[in-house]
Amino acid sequence: MGVKTPEDGEEAIKRHGLKKGRPEIQIPKDLLEEKDGLGVFLNPDEGKEIMMHFTTLVAGLKKKGEGLTEDEEETICGFFESDVISPRFVRRVLDEYGDESVRAAFLLKGDLPGYWLEYLLRSRKGHFYRKRYPALAVV
């Protein structure tokens, strides 16, 4: 979530030993054609996470809970409801843009206990908190 210079790019190419200046990846067409911004998070535990409609999410979070549009509320709620977006990604975004709009989107009013965000994450993204075992294939 920061601006990189061309020198940063050259350094990354050297550091990772890339031959063409970028890794070989296949990007789905719907991601390439997304007009409302993409949020990409490189999670060391889960891998690469990509979120569509990121511009709407950020616009809603920047409003600090005041005057959210229906689309912004739906996007904020969808950010929490998505099975593929990790709690770590959510926390990273909220650290940068604040959590006031999350409270507004989920209609959480008044003085909330300090653990309200943790409760919301665990209730919506509980599968990230359960013990998971590595996938194995016997050949």
How would you describe this protein?
By secondary structure, this protein is mainly alpha-helical. The chain has a domain of 91 residues. Helix content is 45%, strand content 9%. Strands 1-2 form a two-stranded antiparallel sheet. Strand 1 and strand 2 form a beta hairpin. Helix 3 crosses helix 4. The longest helix is centred in the middle third of the chain and has 12 residues. 16% of the residues are buried.
Distance between the termini: 41 Å
Number of alpha- plus pi-helical segments: 7
Quick check: average pLDDT? Answer: 86
What does the main sheet amount to?
2 strands, antiparallel
Count of DSSP strands: 2
| Strand residues, percent | 5-15%
- Compute the gyration radius: what is it? 18 Å
Low-confidence stretches: none
Q: What portion of residues is helical?
A: 40-55%
Strand order of the largest sheet: 1-2
* SS content category: mainly alpha
Give the overall shape.
globular
Order of helices and strands: HHEEHHHHH
